[in-house]
Structure formats: structure tokens, C-alpha cells
Amino acid sequence: MELQDAIAQRRSIKVFRRDMNIDDDALYEAIQRATDAPNHGLRAPWRVVHIAKHRLGDMSKQLTEIAFPNLRKKQEDHYKVATNLGGMLALIVKEDPRQKESLENNMAFGAFAQNLMLLLFEAGIGTCWKSPAYIFNPEIRKIFGVKDDERLVGLLYLTDLEDLERMPHRERQHNQIIDKF
Ligand SMILES: Cc1cc2nc3c(=O)[nH]c(=O)nc-3n(C[C@H](O)[C@H](O)[C@H](O)COP(=O)(O)O)c2cc1C
């Protein structure tokens, strides 16, 4: 797949109504290859926790007990969506107390994440980066083993690509990006 096609055709997959499966070997290969992203000082400020298909239900129960206590319907809805996925990745950035290094780490993670989403797209795996408010909840962080010097920046939902055509191409504004010095 041409790079420009991957960039233009990748879409966030936001339909989770079918039971989906993905190739975990292809997932792991894409994660390794995504680390070619630029990162200052080669600090590699990224790691992921893979919630494999067979662990999604257990994870959903733990997560929703904390995120949606006593909200049975929300818990069930989350369970249905989560267990339909092909897997999930908890996205974790290494924090740095220094302002410059912190910025660099977070930017590098964005480059890693886009590499990863494009490589997965090429491998036939769909993604949607989710950043629900509960990623900041210390108890949720604990579920995924996020350390004190790390930041949980999202959950990457992993899908197949059967619904790709149904995903709207959210047009970007190309004007007013470039100003002349
Ligand atoms: C850092 C980040 C956080 C996001 N969080 C969410 C989210 O919480 N829920 C969601 O449905 N999509 C989320 N998205 C996906 C965006 O909504 C999506 O990229 C945007 O609508 C453009 O669509 P496209 O990816 O199909 O081009 C997130 C994307 C990024 C980069």
C-alpha cells in the first residue's frame, strides 16, 4: 500500500456491533515497526498493554465497576462493545518531569501512534483511539499497570475493516494552515 493511500484512506472505525477477530501476530509486528517513529534521545517513551480478545470481557468487568459503578446498563453496553472487538491496546507514554523532555515524549508518542495506526490499516486491522475521561482515574490506571511516571493516553480499539466503507471521511480544513513568514 502506498503511504499516501494509507494516510488518506485510514479512518477511525467506530462501529462495534459484530464479533470481530484480528491477527495478533500482525498486531505485534506493527507495534515493533511503529517504533521507527522519531523520538528525541531515543528515549522510546512508549509502551502498550495488549488486552487480547479472550481477556476483553474480564477487563470490561473490572473497568466498568470503577468507571460506571452501579450503572448496570452502561456496564452491559461496554461489555458488549468490548467483547466484540478483536483486542485493545492501552496506550502509555513515559512522563518526564522536565518540560522540554515531557513535550518531546508526548509528541513522539503521537508519531508512534500514527505509524501504528497506518501499519495496522495496511495489515487489515482497524483502529479507533478512545480517550474517555476515566483514563485519568487512578483505579483505572491500576488495572493496566500504569506506573507513577507514566501517563495513560488512551485505549486503542482494534477491529477488522469490514465497516471501513461505512465510516465517513471526515473532511479536513486545508486552508489557513500555512502562513508566510
Ligand atoms: C488523541 C485522540 C483521541 C481520540 N479520542 C476519541 C474518543 O474518545 N472517542 C472517539 O470516538 N474517537 C476518538 N478519536 C478519534 C477521532 O474522533 C477521529 O480521529 C476523528 O473523528 C477523525 O476521524 P478519522 O480518524 O476517521 O479520520 C480520537 C483521536 C485521537 C487522535
UniProtKB/TrEMBL annotation:
Keyword tags: Flavoprotein, FMN, NAD, NADP, Oxidoreductase
CDD domains: YdjA-like (cd02135)
PANTHER family, alphabetized: NAD(P)H NITROREDUCTASE YDJA-RELATED (PTHR43821)
Any one GO molecular-function label of the UniProt entry: oxidoreductase activity
Cofactor(s) recorded in Swiss-Prot or TrEMBL: FMN
One Pfam family matching this protein: Nitroreductase
Family that this chain belongs to: Belongs to the nitroreductase family.
Name listed for the protein in its UniProt record: Nitroreductase
Species whose genome carries this gene: Staphylococcus ureilyticus (Staphylococcus cohnii subsp. urealyticus)
Top-level taxon of the source organism: Bacteria
Domain Nitroreductase: 7-157
